[in-house]
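Lab meeting prep.
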Amino acid sequence: MYLGIDFGTSGCRAVVIDAAKKTLAEARQSLPAPVHKESRISQNPQLWLQALDRLLQDLSTQISLTDIERIAIDGTSGTVLLCSHNGKPLTDALMYNDASSEQAAQTIRQQSQHSGHITMSASSGLAKAIQWSQSLKQDHFLVLNQADFISNTLAGSWGHSDEHNSLKLGYDVTNRRWPTWVETLLPAHSLPQVFAPGTVFGNICKDFRQRFGFSVGCEICVGSTDANAAFIATGANRPGDAVTSLGTTMVLKILSEHPVNDLSSGIYSHRLGDLWLVGGASNAGAGILRDFFSEQEIVELSEQMNIDQPSGLDFYPLRHKGERFPVNDPQ
């Protein structure tokens, strides 16, 4: 049995499958909305751990977790926090759509040797990590993405990440190393060790074994971003295959034989096996519905919609100032 956990903006989900990919158990938990304060959008990482506990508790009432051999987690891309080397959060997490790190992005533009690099956006993970490090005023910390923090917690082993989540921190996925210019902006020891998605880096820690019944041999592997996980889940695997994911925000991904990067339009590329996953993520999406309707109203109104009939409406559903794709414009 295998357990996959997905952390999104409004909630988290888990699914247990067998070797034939048959679903054996599912669970989901809602998350409190991130805190908005002007251009800063943040969330307390303790909320993730509480939701993780509830997910595992729910699953354990459906099936025994003893036979789960491996666990993988995906999380929102570019959601970053700083923690101690034993996993204690030192900051809140700046969310994927946070735009408060413009000053740090200017610093990156001065230091980076690549014009138009993905980290030059205020929404990049590197910009957020620099902003947090400047406010922390200490060098002893780890930079982790959302999925890293969850997987590292499960393993009780800290400082591990994957190539997908680390891309926006400035990791060089072509040469598979941290560039020296990134290490001039953050201490080298604060950067996680990066592996290909799906690489096992440890086993589940004693605390989770005792509380939920996992076996000693249950493996924890580095994961992916939420949009990349959604792409993989469709089974798309040939150059030209494209997937649009519509959740709180909207993401477009297309499989390519070559990487494509264009900061002005918010396009970047992840390494996926021997191919490249090219795409962009918009801040526009279905999340805006929660600003106007309750959960019950969304369900009831959705049932009344005739999806074969055009609405006659033409909206760009952007909740807050700032867009990343198809135009990269923080204003």
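Slide two material, second protein:
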Amino acid sequence: MTDATKINMNEAEHAVGKTLDLSASDYVPWSTFLTRKNVVPLALVSLAVWLHAGDSLVVATMMPTMVAEVGGASLVGWSISLYQIGSIVAGAASALLTMQYGVRRAMALAALVFALGCLVSAAGRTMPEVLVGRLVQGFGGGGLVAMSFVAVSLFFEPRYRARALAVISTLWGIAAFLGPVIGSFFVAYANWRWGFGFFAVKAVLLAVWIGLSSGERPPQLAMAHGSFPLRRLSLLAFAVVLISFAGVEVVLGRTLPLCLLGLFTLYHFLRLDQKAGETRLFPRELLEFKNPIGAGLLMCLSMSFSTVGLSAFGPLLLAALHEVGPLQIGYVIASAAIGWSVLAVSTSGIAAAHQGAMIRLGMGTVALGVLGLAIAVPYGPLWLVALFSFAEGAGFGMCWHFIMGRMTSMAPQEEVQRLSGAIPTVQRIGYAFGAAYVGIVANASGILSLDVPEKATNAAFWIFASSAPFVLLGLFAAVSFTRAQTEATNRVTP
């Protein structure tokens, strides 16, 4: 690369007016990345993400045994919903916490909160007591995940971030396999309470490791002053509670009003947050969809919203329409996580000049997966369902690390931590709202009559086909998000 090229690169500006370092994400071999300097923070971040990713699958595997002992079968849905509520609220607060107290202390605190939630669930004698623990676990786990992305933006040089994010993505695929295995082990050979204790011990060890880890403390990008935004966080929690309650038991006359009230509450929260100055929880560009960062967040929200159908209703539909057992269903659902992991690792070294195209290709592959499931799930064959499930995950895998890297490179310096924490939080909000939406569609299209083949086929089609408008919105946002960088690249003289 000539000096003239470097100078021209420094002069290439994107739409938000910040200089892009296009050389920062050039190809980096794994051998260069996996040095002692990077391995320790990578291991810390990976363990933090594993606690969140593995816990949900372990608990889902143990849930039938838990219900048999403590009762509360009608409350099982809330085990997921309460964890999700805690995760979203903690994720929203994570950037502010890291800016006030530093990433290490904030992550150690989140790990201890997660451990406390595990112990409360382990000690629960009734399902409501277990659910209290799940809510506390959600606060800790959601905070750990969001803070992990903040940590990646602070602990790793820009050219290493795609590799670090690829490793994190791979953990989701590993969790898809090991989570049920671990849960089954505790059910078969020990006790489900020990499963919660197992994760509590790991969380405490993580907190101790973070506290004892050496290395220079990363500089804080901003310091937020003033009182902690409990009012805004309460509004956010209320919005997610409304949406989650609407999706747990879908009755159209009740679910639709709850969704609308939840959307209104969420919008009110966002408007208040944008006016909050230094104590903002989300970046300023969150609602500016013409801004590339706003377009990128809209893309994340829309695509997450659109991909809930298989995890929410896939097991029921596959069992009813294709007469397959739990093991086959599990592998079909897990193929999305496998696709994500495989493509995340294999594409993480792609040079910066091609990453915009990879983002568009990835989002297009997600769209293909979602819309393909509208045909494959109702009509089969099963291998085609697995293929489109794999495509859905692979689309995210081939571009998610580039999305994270590009958005943080576009953000003003003082917004990087907020944006790093906002991306996974927006993703989870999309999942929560998507679950409520697809529940309404499923109810209206005949999900309660799966014993009638025609109605089961109709429900299977509309659960996935109804996501088409949001898939198209996500694709449009992907084009808007990548256009700014493409224009900047085209202005560089080779």
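Talking points for slide two:
Residues 282 and 422 are 6 Å apart (CA to CA).
The chain is about 80% helix and 0% strand.
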